Batch of 3 targets.
Target 1
Amino acid sequence: MTGAGVLEILRPGALTTVQDLGRVGLAHLGVPRSGALDSPAHRLANRLVGNAPGAATLETTLTGCAVCPDRAVVAAVTGAPCPVRIDGRPAPWGAAVRVPGGAVLEVGAARAGVRGYLAVAGGVGVEPVLGSRSTDLLSGLGPAPLSAGARLPVGPASGPVPWADAVASAAPGPPSGELVLPLVPGPRDDWFTPGALRALARGIYRVSAESNRVGLRTEGPALERAVRGELPSEGMVAGAVQVPPGGEPIVFLADHPTTGGYPVVGVVPREALAAAAQAVPGLRVRFVPLRR
Amino acid sequence: MGRRALLLEVGGTGRAQALHAELVRLREAGELPEVEEIVPAAATVLLDGVEEPGALARWLQGREFPGAAPAGTAAVVLPVRYDGPDLAGVAALWGVDEEEAVAIHTRTEFRVAFCGFAPGFGYLTGLPGELGVPRRAVPRTSVPPGSVGLAGAYTGVYPRTSPGGWQLIGRTDAVLWDVCREPAALLAPGTRVRFEAVT
């Protein structure tokens, strides 16, 4: 690497991975897209420190992380709101901050939401795999989930830090009260009974603790199939709501498999997936079918 | 399929392979409107990352598509030691002895219909439907890389160690998937494949 610095992981939290915008154009080989689950928050973190949107950030899960740069670096934390501390002193969340070399940057536990994004000016400079630095937990591509003591290269800063007082963001923030997921019906809604489709639209679902980067699992009324038998494997997209034999819908997120054999009752538009990425286990989920 | 994708149903694996090959050709020729992914599967081709699916659907409807995939390049030959733990069971399901089961498998011309399950895992068609075998009732927790398995009428080769429920008939030393190699996948949709028995 260019010797622009090293970021040492002191505390990886529940799960911290390197993420960018993912691997594009390889789904036909069985390679998931991967990439930041809350893409608007990832992009915002990069913008705050003057990076391009595709620079790699650290994606934290619920409990944050702690890192130490070996030289001064500009950083920003976005996504799930949380306390930020530099050498124990409170620092702003959602803004660029200067972290001195050797200081400890602590990304605290999320006050709401699930995934936080830590960007450093220059981006996390691990070697890309198939055009992306993202950790793909389904297929094991990209760097392993971070552990304490891991040392990550920092890329050369690409431009000046904006030091803006306020930045408009497309990041919706964590859903409060309930997660509303619009749903474009199909392609396999006809594999379910009319009663199942009513249950999906009116039933109360909750985010399952089994959710991960592959999918947001839900618990609620099981959807009854009208068509028995097996669906031949077909291509899957992010936001696809797949219904396995148990009947409880799974919303596919970034690390979803590229093909699958369970029917997809509908697809959540991409714009709504950032909120899904921030939905904590137990949160109520409401599916709102749209016109096709 | 959602707001940014089209799932094209063609009714069969051969037609899906043909449509996939033609769509890839059109993209390489610069004729296909922009898409991020072209993903063939058992009876469909998915176009994902499409800005205007409605316009693309109309464009597709106005075209003729071939019913069969082109012959393509020379077959990839995979040397296999046919000593898998499920070879005897597969031979019994086929009503032949193990030697004949190997002969059937090695004289079949396969083609990668589509990939999935893991990067570089191809679903190979070529065996007739009546030689389809069920998945194992209890999947193995760990299948070594290079294992050659059967499920339904598909043959597949595990690119890396993973759990798996396919009936294992042998093992190859060929490297199916290597991110440091260009291309990373030995078997991509459309690739023709033959298996060769080695000891």
Target 2
Amino acid sequence: MAEPHEPVAAHSADGVQASTAAEHDSGGGVPQFEFQHWGGQIAYLLVLFAILYVLVSRVFAPRMRKVIDERAGAINGALAAAKQVQAEAQDQARVAQAEVADARAQSQRVAAEARAKAIAEAAERSAIAETEVSGKIAEAEVRIAAMRDRAMAEVGTIVTETTRAIVEKLTGQAATAAEVKAAGGAA
Amino acid sequence: MAGPLEQFEIHKLVDFPDMTLPFVGTVDLAFTNSHLAMTIVFVVIVGFLSLVTARPEVVPGRLQTVGEGVFGLIDNMTESMIGHEGRKYFPFVFTLFLLILGMNLLGLMLTFTATSQLAITVTFAILTFGLVMVIGVVKNGFGFLKLFWPMGAPLVMRPFVGLIELISFFLRPLTLSLRLFGNMMGGHVALKVFAGFVAAAAAGSLGIWLSAPVGLVSMSMVVALTALEFLVAFLQAFVFAILACIYLNDVVNLDHAH
């Protein structure tokens, strides 16, 4: 900071003489139009520009691009890896879900089978019981029918005997069973 | 006390014998304060870029982040404005931007601003304009003239619009150099004027009653202007780089654009 100050300070210390000299050189008083200083500045700037251009294009820009490309590669790699892991996890989740669904379906099927079996057994058992019961009912009906027939037959005999007794009493003659029957049948 | 224009004067720090060149005339060879400023800027830029790229890491440190920010700024600019061929012109635009930005910023810290020298801004402008001309002619040959033949305009208007285009094209080095030169010189003159008021007030040459208010107002103006000048320093370098990109795009993509 101090060094570039010095020429200015030294110059202003010179006082009026130096500034009038500068005005004589430029004519208009603006120091930028002192053309005797242009050549050296332009040449020096062109040299510096050329050196910096070569340095940037040969050294600095390739180095920068390398790092930036490396970073982009690292980020893309990490992203790809993360995506792959995520896909794997999703696959596993899907497999697990399918397994759960399978197990549920299987258990439902087993339950349904068991229920069907129980129902079938119950139906079978009730069918057997029914046939047994209906057999007994039929048997009983047969027996009842036989008893009724026997009773009716006995009623017939009683009627015939009663009729013969009545006829004997009334007529004093014994009637044969056939006659009574005939009469009964006619009556 | 120094006048506001004194900061732009060139002083010889080391004098060399004058040289007489053909066509150019006598050249005053010397290492001046302008050369010193340019040298400091050059050394700082090369040092900065070397530090940034010396041990580059995938996860950047602070300095590397700043360096890559500047690099990315210009890289994106050339890429988005010139297209896929932009990378070829990146070193030129980057060099241009860094040198102008460095000189602008250094001018706010030293007493001398290289970019407030018309010789310097004219050199930058001619360099850019010359590159545009050379690329235009090498890439397109006589097709270069299509740049001045506006296909979008009605046929009757084309010669007039073309003439205007031609004039504005050849005014480019002038506008480029004067924009940077004017901005830097104006800013520093304004700074110096207000700083002169502060110095006068401090010396008590304004009288008892005026010294304090004038000094305070001028001092706050100097502070505000300095902040503004930092913005201008960056903005003018950025504008110069953008315009260089636009002009390069004109001739690089002449077939696509027109």
Target 3
Amino acid sequence: MWRAKWLYLALLIPVALLLIFEWLPAFSALYNSLYIWNGGKVHFYVGLEHYERMLSDRTFRVAITNLVGFLFFRVVMQTVLPFFAAEMIVNLRSQRWSYWWKIIFVFPMVVPTILNYLIWRFIYNPQVGLLNEGLKLVGLGEYTHAWLGDPLTVMWALAFVRFPWLPTLQFLIILGGLQTIPKEVHESAAIDGAGFWRRLFYIDIPMTRRQITLAMILTMIFMTQRFDLFLVMTDGGPGYSSMVPALQLFQSAFNFLEFGYASAIGVVLFVAMLALTVINLRVSAGATN
Amino acid sequence: MFRRLLLVSLFLLIFGAFAGYTQDEITIFATVGAYYPDEPTENNPDPPKMMNAIAAEYEAANPGVNIELVDVPSNISGDQWRSTVFNGQNEPHIIVNNFIRVWQEQGNDWYVPLNDYIEMPNPYIPEGTPGHERWADSIPDVVWDSTYHTGSGNQYVVTVNAVAVGFYYNIDLLEAAGIDTEFDIDYSLWADWETMIAEMGAVAEAGYEPLAMSMSTASPYTYNWFDGTSLTSMYIDHIESWWEPGASWHALNQREFACAIHNGLISAHDDAFADWLGLLADFEPMWVDGYAVMTWDEAYRLFITGEVPFLLGNAASQTLNVTRDADFNWGISYFPPVTETTSPHAANNESAYLVGGFTAGFTVTDRARREGVEEQVVDFLMYLTAQPQWGRVVTDSPRSIPTQFGLDVPDALKPTVAFLELPIRALKDPDPRLSRRYGEDHRRLMQEYFTDQIDLETLIAEEDRLMSREARVVIAENEWTCDFQME
């Protein structure tokens, strides 16, 4: 009994730290979004002015549009492809090979993200980049392009960064889900004559729906918060053609010292993410039922 | 009882001595810009080192004072770094900063006015040398005038560097393509803007992308340079009417430009403004593919590997790099003047204008005031900027032309001295012209126009809206009046 009490008490420490370092800053954004604040002495109440401004802010509108397209593409890719990778690994007969394949899929996790971006910047370089050089090599020189410098191609180019979209965390979540399906279920399906596709659609996908939903939600949250990709690769350009809300938030705060407006963008993103997560969970739960 | 008293007394004695000792210790944190004594690397085999020696000399002469040189992280912008350290009240006591940035940030009380200090004698300048009697005399008036903040009446910056920009050109490559590499005028390969476009067009016909430059909003410098200098040329007949009373030719401060917009003296709907947009649009095809997201380093690599014959760069640090890296013959030229062959609005324009000049200087921050060490910090600044010390810094690593009387121009930078003799551009980079927000949005608008996302009509309408909005904001924030301007 005393051990349980101590555990409760011990838990207070991380909870307090969490409140101070995570919850407090997050909720202070709500407060700051009602103020004009330059990060210094200028700090006065403006009510909902920042939220009104957002409605007429052309940059924010473009940023949201870019994000929606980007999210849709990446959520689909970062769920479907890890699912198929996990499905293949689960179906391997050799445990040893299965182990090595998992290692190979998990390995990219240790590569620093920034290094990855710099490699992709080099791939897309219009003068000496791998993509254009490759096109020239196979006789498609007329298709060489300033991939990041053209508003028509920049978002596609960014969406392809980290191709073939096998994020470790999502992969492991789905793999974990697939591994929990009892063998007997698959064996019964096989006896009933179910092939790969039938098994996939009638057993594996329904039985890993929770993991798939979690992977989708995580991708959505990570991608919405992501501004480093856009900052390093294009800084939102050319013009606003690769601007996303997280980058606009960052620039408002640190380039223009508009911490109030940046906080308001943060609050809107938080609410949107929360709403999307709830919808996703409801839809998923409904489908499972 | 006696033993307890003895122990307490001993404790107080030790603690008191320690407290007294720490109170007398002063650590001055300072950024020194391009002169930070870095470790040698493959890309920078011979970094500056003199600052360490100067700091050590000062520490030896001032027991109890420690000098800590601070490197500004290269992975965030200077603006972001400053807002972080100032808001965390962790800023160094001395910061190298662009005087325009200091103007924009002076409302935060981040910097100590140096008006009284620069009137004092500088004991570290030898007797008989300008500045010994009065520190300000060590630096020409033109430098002080350029960096003086008319709005507040304060001088915040001691500027000991002068730099220009320039077009580096690959002589071997241009000659092989049959392009003339003789100067048409004293400071430029080209007699006027049109000649420059025509010759770069010939380079393009020879199969090269002509000019390596960057218009990335993350590192926008290169584009900003011809934005400001060419706009100055287009409004040459009007700029005098934008000045504050009694001013002579100078880089306009925010108030003058904001009021010119507010009073309708400049508008994106002007014919001169339209001609200026046309001038930039004619120049844009000469820029390398991907310029909108290209970084300075990427542009440099294109030039140094012989991919591109022209590079627009900083005529100080880049000269050192090109001298080190180029395995071809190269030269450095300046912008040509914009003349009436480009636009009737530039008919009375006779010159190109200096980009750069006396941009970066030393500021003393509020931390010195907060900690009560202002005089000690200024004393170190006097020591550092005195000719005997600064001369060694620049000789060790010639990254800029020293502004102080009595110091020589480093040999590597002599070709750029002619550029520094040009009149300063009245209209500076978009950011300091009005505000950071204006600079950023203006560049993005121009990118949208250049990449055919918006047409000329939309560009003019958006630019006009942007200029009006930011002028209004800047005037309101600073509580300025604009009744000094008369057309």
